[in-house]
Design brief:
By secondary structure, the chain is an alpha/beta fold. The chain is built from six helices and 14 strands. Helix content is 24%, strand content 26%.
Amino acid sequence: MRILFLGDVMGRSGRAAITTRLAQLKTDWRVDFAVVNGENATSGAGLSGAHAKTLLEGGADCVTLGDHAFDQKDMLQFIEAEPRILRPLNFSAQAPGKGARLFDVKGRKILVAQALGQVFMKRPFADPFSALDAALKQLGGQAATRIVDFHAEATSEKMAMGHFLDGRASLVVGTHTHVPTGDAMILSGGTGYLTDAGMCGDYNSVIGMDKKEPLRRFLTGMPKERFTPAAGDASLSGVLVETDTDGKATTITPIREGGRLQTATP
């Protein structure tokens, strides 16, 4: 299987990059299944139902969320009716939706799961290691290919998760920081790993936000205006992993397409 994972979609610019370029990217790279993290797609904070439809119609086969999962209140209802949207496993037990699901792809099953990290996060979340361990034990036996989106701040926590799931996941990829890392690799047990997929958004920015207000806050320490997503040409940033029949990663390739990042070549 050839799995494409794209990092956090950031605002209107990121949505436009998905709708105009993802379908062709899937064709060029012969992608069987595409996972997109969409948790910042609506004004940089959460994902609305309408924008979730936009990402799905643009070519995403599954959309993951994150710590801003329910910033857009209509997602509380939308996620119950749309099984292709996943929220973190270790979110509140009262949260609607699912954090792990099986998908049918060309007669085979793919498991996608997501969890939130604990280190440096503003809110306390349940243990992501035990949450993902339980999900893989419950559903992993039904799918050789298993994709894990670990939405976390600390690189050390993401790396620890990669090694914790080595041999049990086809891909463990980090999201949340919006900065693509250069450590794509296949771990000793056959798991593809990348600390952070980066974002789908305008990189002429401060992690996707228009530069003016973040710079002003760093210089003065005082907030003045709300952050707004940068609206320039967006890059698609993520990773492609190819798996064998046992779900082990055989190749892993960072994807940096369009905008200010280097264009990947299939």
